[in-house]
Write a structure and sequence with these properties.
67% of the residues lie in helices and 3% in strands. By secondary structure, it is mainly alpha-helical.
Amino acid sequence: MTTPNPHPYPQPETMAAPKTDSRPRPKRRAADVAYDAIEALLSTLQLQPGGQIVEAELADRTGLGRTPVREALMRMVSIGLIVQQPRRGLLVSAIDLADHLDVIQTRRVLERLIAACSARRATVQQRTDIVRCAQAMVEAAGRGDLTDYMRADHALDLVNHQASHNDSAVRAVIPPIVQCRRFWYAYQHEGEIVEGANAHLELAQGIATGDEAAAIAGAERLMDYLEVFARKIIDK
């Protein structure tokens, strides 16, 4: 398997989500761009659990202003990805083994809901795009290319979340997704990458058919895969 580079998927300001219609997308808020950039650093452990957050360094690292970076960090504090401690400032939250199965259980409920919504509401183009992203994951897994795998995984999440038209569920699922990605990187999940890609493909194909039951079954398979891996680590 290839060694992951420092940026496993494109920086958010340049990354384009799969095209779903011909209408121009509204310009994204700088704070949202900053949030995505910092989330990528958290997910890939470039910001280590327990490490101190230095606002100025993050602004330099992401190429964004301190104001949007500060706003993004406060949002992360509110959902537990960043913790604020007296006299120590902002710290990256720890990866809690004891809590991780609860994280997956929570994510399972949300992923089922999002998959069902996407199956029901996705446009024709979105159905095509989500399968294309999953196929890219399968191809990257076959090459052992973790960089392309994570890029395609991130793109799949974007189109799936857009297709669901359920902003409440999407906002709720983002923190568990980031925690699962951090767990994945922390324990060097390499051996099961093909299985993971196939689970994503089943989810994508279920959504593409418009069959809510098939989409939910795909979400269940993906969560089962993550849970089995987590239990292997926890039970060691």
